[in-house]
Design goal:
single chain; four-stranded mixed beta sheet; 10 helices; 8 strands; binds 2-acetamido-2-deoxy-beta-D-glucopyranose; transferase; membrane; Glyco_trans_14; BC10-like
Length: 355
């Protein structure tokens, strides 16, 4: 599987705790203060400089001025029928909070070719939390042999998945659809067969449940493996300036999972025009469809980074894979304490931002 890291067994238990949860809790007030002060600056600005006056722009940075010229904010283009329909459906879903069940659960959705090498490790992670999670397995190549009771009987009907093709996105949507059937599932995490947990269950549960965003990686890659994959056949709904890239591994809240189910317009655009060997270019929908779709439909609702860690720092086609001798306590401690998101773009630049 693409981007799968070949973790090899050799560790018994490495559900490491770190203190980054505190950081998350501390962050919220800062955000609110920032937001409040931004809002008040804005109001003062509007009060002093009535709308329409070009002087109003000077109260913001030059970037703020440009925001008014951004065609996505001031939509100069008339929307297509499909776009209007898509917008109203999605806005309506986003306005309607999902029904709260007594014990909200997290759906762990495994996208794998066959058997899962780390079932025993996941079993340790899940043990004792039986009422707060569900497991779904989409095995695209061969029937998995399960060794953990949490995985037995959790296979969903699957289809073949071809690396880089749209069948990857279809498998992700199949997992989401099956997991949505259970109204208790409030958050949905997509994982590969080579993912391992690096925090304990409570930490992961609280982190995902009490953050009201989806963790979808989303960034601009101006290079050949980013914007270079864009095709103008996606116009008018998907403009080049809105084309985004991101890790395939996401975690979404229930509302966003439903929004993904409701989408046919962008689904179709990417299925037809973002695929390997499209006009002599290779485009991989699993890296572009959801980041671009959420940028267009709910940019504030996503974190722009993914909760699964992958090391792309070697700058190769595939991320770093770990062999048994690489797996040390220090490595795992390093991974659990990561507090920035690193985006390596194909114009050979590295972009970092803290979260
Ligand atoms: C997320 O939660 C924060 C505070 O906890 C709140 O201010 C914000 O409006 C919420 N956002 C959404 C999209 O619900
Ligand atoms: C994610 O990026 C979009 C723009 O690309 C921005 O509007 C949004 O606020 C970002 N999300 C967070 C949580 O910072
Ligand atoms: C862990 O991080 C430290 C500090 O960045 C670094 O020096 C060390 O090589 C890392 N160790 C491993 C095993 O990645």
């Amino acid at each position: 599987m693409k981007k799968a890291r070949a973790w090899r067994l050799g560790m018994k238990d490495f559900l490491v705790m770190s203190n980054s949860r505190q950081r998350v809790q501390l962050r919220r007030p800062t955000w609110i203060i920032l937001l409040v002060s931004f809002v008040s600056i804005f109001l003062v600005g509007v009060y002093i400089y009535p709308a329409g006056s070009s002087a109003a722009c000077f109260i913001f940075s030059s970037e703020g001025c440009n925001a008014f010229n951004n065609p996505r904010l001031v939509n100069l283009r008339p929307l297509t029928d499909d776009e209007i329909a898509s917008d109203v459906v999605i806005k309506e879903i986003l306005k309607t909070p999902p029904v709260q069940t007594r014990t909200p659960k997290i759906a762990f959705m495994f996208l794998t070719p066959g058997s899962l090498p780390f079932e025993k490790l996941w079993e340790k992670f899940f043990y004792g939390h039986e009422d707060r999670f569900t497991v779904y397995v989409h095995a695209s190549r061969e029937r998995p042999i399960h060794v953990s009771r949490y995985f037995i009987g959790r296979d969903i009907r699957s289809e073949k998945v071809v690396w880089g093709k749209f069948s990857m996105v279809e498998a992700e949507k199949r997992l989401l659809a099956n997991a949505l059937i259970d109204p208790g599932n409030q958050h949905f995490v997509l994982l590969s067969d080579s993912c391992v947990p690096v925090h304990n269950f409570d930490y992961v549960y609280n982190y995902l449940m009490f953050t009201n965003v989806s963790f979808i990686d989303c960034f601009i890659d101006p290079g050949p493996h980013g914007n270079g994959r864009y095709s103008e056949h996606m116009l008018p709904e998907v403009q080049k300036q809105d084309f985004r890239k991101g890790s395939q591994w996401f975690s979404v809240k229930r509302q966003h999972a439903i929004v993904i189910m409701a989408d046919s317009l962008y689904h179709m655009k990417f299925r037809l025009y973002c695929r390997p060997n499209m006009d002599g270019r290779n485009c991989y929908s699993d890296e572009h469809y959801l980041p671009t779709f959420f940028l267009l439909k709910d940019p504030e609702g996503i974190a722009n980074w993914s909760v699964t860690h992958v090391d792309w720092s070697e700058g190769k086609w595939h991320p770093k894979s770990y062999r048994a001798q690489d797996i040390t306590y220090e490595l795992l401690k390093n991974i659990t304490s990561i507090d920035e998101s690193v985006h390596v773009t194909s114009d050979a630049k590295v972009h970092r931002f803290s979260f």
